[in-house]
Amino acid sequence: MLENAFNVVMAHPLLLAVIKILIVFAVLSGIVAYLVYMERKVLAFMQARLGPMRVGPWGLLQPIADGLKLLLKEDIIPAGADKFVFLLAPAISVLAAFTVFAVIPFAGNFYISDINIGLLFILGVSSLGIYGIILGGWSSNSHYPLLGALRSSAQLVSYEVAAGMALVGVLLISNSLSMVEIVNRQQQMGVWNVFLQPLAFVIYVIAAVAETNRNPFDLPEAESELTAGFHTEYSGFRFALYFMAEYTNMVLVSCIAVTLFLGGWLRPFSSVHALDFLRWAPPVSLVGAAVFILWLGLQSRVPLERYFFVALALGCVAVGVIISYPLILNAVQGIFWFGVKVLAFLYAFIWYRATFPRYRYDQLMNVGWRWMIPLALANLIVTAVVRYLLSAHTPASPVAWLLR
Amino acid sequence: MEILFYICAAVSVLAALNVVLQRTPVYSALSLILVLCLLAVIYLLLGAEFIAVIQVIVYAGAIMVLFVFVIMLLNAGREVPSERSRLARWLGVPLVIAFLLEVLWAVWNQFPSGTAPAADFDAGPAAIGHLLFRNYVLPFEVTSVLILVAILGAVVLAKKEE
Asked: Would the CB atoms of B33 and A127 count as touching at under 8 Å?
């Protein structure tokens, strides 16, 4: 029965693609929901608070409660708003954010598609996401959203240039636009791109924070000046869509940075065989998580919560045992390391928010145009020249090349 | 795949008509974006994936963003239909029909079988890069200088007004 179903799926590539898309969409939505929880918790701990604690043990059911609340709230359309565009805009934002995941390789054996223009596809589709913001702000027929949308689009356009040029540096090294090929190339060279392109990495990370409208570049929704920026007039489900788009974009830029600069699904030092014991990291970290959960649960005075945490810890151990089988252990390697790296990135995103004060608007533009873009250009030129000097058709020494 | 072509072609023609007929500038711009994206899909179906993506990045993602931006800044409302001249009223539609027939005739002559043969060249980024930087490097660079001149001209014109 199961084998039969497996064969049917394998025989129809379209069906396989649809199943993969559904898996990615479902997992991603869950991750986005709990990313909000993680953000609130991490921020709270950094500020010596507890964060959400009421809904479920340690507030674990908070995202579900929030989602339900937003679904049930009234969907208000302001008088004088351009109704069609107002309804369309949040959908564009979410659509653009989710579509890009079609070319992200989550593991060497799990990606929706591997096209030879993967990186360009990412740049193209994510540049369409800006329409969600502009149109949302414009159609609200209100001052704060319009100003927020203007700021946001100016910011996105400015930082997209720097980010794009930083990515070209990686391209020059990897010789390919395919995301899978870029990771494979890092495996072949035995070194992650971040060590070959450190400047490009820093520029991309800064631009990524700016493009996702996150602190310290969250001017489009600066509360003290613009209430909530472009989505001030949105409520209920449509507000939730914008919210989802923002957090999906956070996950997205983390995935891109990890794939291009941090070796994607490769484990650290993947070409050093002495470190092969690192393949046991997934089950070991699950057992570690179980111990932590148990420790957390035993502090609770509510019996129901204690049972819940013990069950959760047992579940973690069970999953850890299951993935220890050699076949499954090999299959989860890629996805585990990819997940760990992305999680580290997301944590850094939250960390920035707790650390940096917001930029002023003129400072933002200064940093973008006077520092990031010239630096990205310089990086590009140096990379291209070095790449040419090291390539096969050049004469042995640079001097010979100059005298030619 | 053929059905995909017909859907994209039909919708893009409708959207293109909407660009012209629409009285609200933002709707015109949105329809134009739709047309550009659908054209990109048609390029993809023809196997020209690089052109398809560049189409989206440059036109839909950059130039149209500027268009929408400007429309928003000017806060342009509905267009007021102007008094059309008698000449335009009598000659407009016949001329459009004549032009359309001419284009159809030209295409029909080119491909009497009704289907254009699939191109048999590599349209990947590497092949196009080779063409641009080997065979057509002079026109390519001259075009970029031309665009630079246009930008400088715009800056100069904008400065003069102060």
From this structure: no
Q: DSSP string spanning A303-339?
A: HHHHHHHHHHHHHHHHHHHHTTSHHHHHHHHHHHHHH
Nearest by CB: A130 against B57, B65, B72: B65
Cα–Cα distance list, A142 to A15, A105, B79 (Å): 45, 41, 21
- Judge: domain B2-79+123-158, CATH 1.20.120.1200: yes
Is B1 at the interface with chain A, CB within 8 A?
A: no
The answer to whether A104 and A111 are in contact (CB under 8 A) is yes
Please state, in angstroms and as integers, the Cα–Cα distance from residue A147 to each residue in A155, A219, A222, A230, following that order. 12, 10, 11, 7
Cross-chain CB nearest to A128 (options B61, B124, B125): B61
CA A189 – CA A64 distance, rounded (Å): 44
Per-residue pLDDT reduced to its tens digit, A338-360? 889 999 999 998 898 888 888 88
Euclidean distance between CA atoms B134 and B111, whole angstroms:
31
Burial tier of A87 (Cβ tally within 10 Å: 0-12, 13-18, 19+): middle
Does the CB of B50 have a partner CB in chain A at under 8 Å?
A: yes
Average pLDDT rounded to a whole number, residues A170-185: 86
pLDDT at A239 over 90: no
In B, which residues are within 8 Å of A150 by CB distance? 69, 72-73
Q: Give residue limits of the domains in chain B.
A: 2-79+123-158
Q: How confident is the model at residue A266 (pLDDT cuts 50, 70, 90)?
A: confident
Number of H helices, E strands in chain B: 7, 0
List of chain B residues whose C-beta atoms are within 8 Å of the C-beta of residue A120: 50, 53-54, 57, 125
Complex ipTM > 0.95:
no
Chain A positions contacting chain B at CB under 8 Å are 82, 85, 115-117, 120-121, 123-125, 127-128, 130-131, 134-135, 137-138, 146, 149-150, 153, 157, 177
Residues with Cβ within 8 Å of residue B99, at least 6 apart in sequence: none
